[in-house]
Design brief:
mainly alpha, 9 helices
């Protein structure tokens, strides 16, 4: 999938979680719903940190471009070291390590630990990174037309405001984990990464979500639906069917989470 579809699917997924929480009589405070949806939208771009042409590689200038090169090499090294004889040979690390459930869990857990132990500045950094990515994904046309600095300023300002809102009593800084402020921040990050992987699994190449769990003779099995049900990234299926569906599902989920029906 392309960046906008990934971000929309991430936001829709978190809003769906909010709807499910409300259905079980444990509604999210509205700041958690909003912030979680934005983090999830940003996190849904993050697995492509192994691809130099992805949205995330451009999002933070030379820093993200350099990080993409490092992650690509790391992913390729892990692939070569762990591939079975049935796994194909590759020349790069795209859609390997960062596109697995294990990576999603580790990154989410790391963010939670950082948020709890690092204090306010760590929380602001997590929010800033994911809000910039959310802007790049959800408002991609506007982001492409504006300068990186303006996008960074929007991300920083939004992070500061939303952190202030969450800090107020009853607004959800300790949502889900009572007494542990911001421990929940890792949840939308895990969800966003997994939603990205599921989206990529729908495309022609599939996605090795289950690694390191072997499937048949392959350790990097490209999980996905039957070949006839897959599509190419950026095709009309993604643009005309999936993206409108994500918008609709997100709207319904958000309205349900807020108790409108």
């Amino acid at each position: 999938m392309m960046g906008p579809a990934h971000s929309l699917s991430g936001a829709a997924a978190w809003l769906g979680v909010g709807a499910a929480a409300a259905a079980f009589d444990h509604p999210m405070p509205w700041p958690v719903l909003v912030v979680g949806a934005l983090i999830c939208a940003g996190a849904a771009l993050a697995p492509d940190l192994d691809h130099k042409s992805a949205t995330i590689s451009r999002a933070f200038g030379p820093v993200s471009r350099g990080l993409c090169e490092i992650v690509d090499k790391l992913s390729y090294a892990v692939y070569k070291a762990t591939r079975s004889s049935s796994d194909p040979r590759r020349s790069g690390g795209h859609r390997t390590l960062t596109h697995t459930w294990l990576w999603a869990v580790l990154i989410g857990a790391g963010a939670s630990v950082a948020a709890v132990t690092g204090g306010r500045w760590a929380v602001l950094a997590i929010l800033f990174v994911h809000l910039v990515l959310a802007v790049e994904g959800l408002l991609w046309r506007a982001a492409r037309m504006s300068s990186d600095v303006l996008v960074w300023l929007l991300g920083a300002t939004s992070a500061w405001i939303l952190a202030g809102v969450l800090d107020k009593s009853g607004n959800g800084s300790d949502w889900f984990f009572t007494g542990q402020e911001y421990l929940w921040l890792g949840l939308p990050i895990v969800l966003g990464a997994l939603v990205h992987d599921i989206g990529d699994a729908l495309t022609v190449s599939g996605c090795p979500i289950l690694w390191p769990i072997p499937v048949g003779r392959k350790r990097w099995y490209p999980l996905g639906p039957p070949k006839g049900m897959r599509f190419r990234a950026g095709s009309w299926v993604e643009l005309k069917v999936l993206m409108p569906a994500f918008m609709l599902l997100g709207g319904v989920g958000g309205a349900s989470a807020l108790g409108f029906f």
